[in-house]
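Table S2 (text version). Query chain:
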Amino acid sequence: MRTRFVRTANTLRFLGAIEALQKRGAGEACLVVVDGEPGLGKSHTAQWWALTTGSLLLRAKAKTTPPWLMRELLGELGVQPEHSFERMFRQAIDALAARSEAAQRDGVDFAIVLDEVDHVIRQRQVLETLRDISDMLEIPIVLVGMGRVRHGLTRYPQIASRVAQYVQFENAPVEDVRALVDGLSEVPVADNLVELVHSLAKGRMREVLEAIAAIERFGRRRAGETIDVAAMAGEALMNDRATGRPMLVRAA
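Corresponding structure-token output:
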């Protein structure tokens, strides 16, 4: 399977939110919330964007605390952390200010991306630490999680008021599945098999990628053929998320 990144409708909504954030009126409204059900490509998109722009990508853990967050942030910035939280926070502010100024000079986006934010949605001190950084430097912070992130933030009006953009990732339409197959598969795939993948995967990116890998394994044994439903009849395409059982291709 090719390793390129394929832009989907969800990607375009994400990029549109980042662009809108740059045009915001209130400078302190620097937060972007990206949420949606598991398997829709949120983390993959955030990772791609962070890598493309040189932004910082962090992943929240179940036991993340403000000092732990500072140490990870400084690690991404290439700064040796000092011992106290106060000194680490100052180190982070100084290093982030330098990175932000450099990005502005180069005309590129720069942000802090925190994935798996569901782990800290009830940890007010962690969220307030992020808000402090955002308020002081007006650096965008992208919070990536599942559907309860938006609701979870309603507990903290001072933080929720800083959210400038909400991006809801949705199940991919068949056009996105076709784009993914064309961009990633190293064997040609017929429309009827793409439509079956979309139907079985219910538009979830994780299952679509699993199906593309299965089609490739099958297609390599039939060099030059366009793989369709009839060709793959009886073959496993992906696993059922609920049962873990393989989902087979059934010819009409």
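Notes on Table S2: The two ends are 27 Å apart (CA to CA). The mean pLDDT is 92.
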